[in-house]
Amino acid sequence: MTDRARRRRNEDAVTVGRLGRTIAAVICDGVSTSLRADLAAHAAAESGLTATLSGLAGGATGPQAIVAAGRAAAGAARATAAPGDGQVPPSCTFVAGVVTAGSVTVGWIGDSRAYWLGPDGAVHEAVCLTVDDSVVGQIRAGRPVPPGAEQDPTSKALLRWLGADSGAADPQVVTFRPARPGRLVICSDGLSHYLPNAAALAARVPGPGGGTPIAIAQDLTRFAVQAGGHDNVAVAVLPFPPAAGAEGGCG
Fold first, then answer.
1. Which CATH class name applies to 2-242?
2. Among the residues of the chain, which ranges form H helices?
3. Which of 54, 67, 111, 160 has the maximal Cβ count within 10 Å?
């Protein structure tokens, strides 16, 4: 689910697909200071999902598929650059999730996020699985930042992104095997700006029997828009364990 909110155009992109009982999703958020950020986000999200499903079909594990997705998304974002873009070619962030019958895997580049929500709306079991690739995100996580960056601990400047002006870096990847049912929520900062921690997000999401994934994504998107809608919003909700369904992908 995605909405342009109060922005002139939507520079967020969401793709969701499945392979048997495995569900995958990719969200890319265009960097607003870059040119044609919407092109980068859409190209990256589509290429990322295609690579994920192709990898899984070929026997790749969740982490392997997400690394391949990040590489494909990076290549697609770089390809949207054009002569004359200067220092602001099309750029975007990347977050992807793969949910199988036994595991949950996420990977990211940038400040789009992934959250694990436990069963029955258990706020205390909710956790943010990603660490923002920004100055403030790294400082909060106790990680080193470039020299001088710590002088501005409130900076949201990205340290990693996808685009012709970005470095070649694979996504950071986290994978685990949940002991109980739950949901994986991935989103752009258009939502996390208004629900900045896992507990706040979990408080808005009913337990596994309390709503379909699309209904929850719609509700979270609507909440962000009504809360101010300062930025485009993108949300995908993947249930664990996944229900059986037809194979394929959708944007």
1. alpha beta
2. 37-57, 62-79, 135-140, 189-192, 198-204, 213-226
3. 111
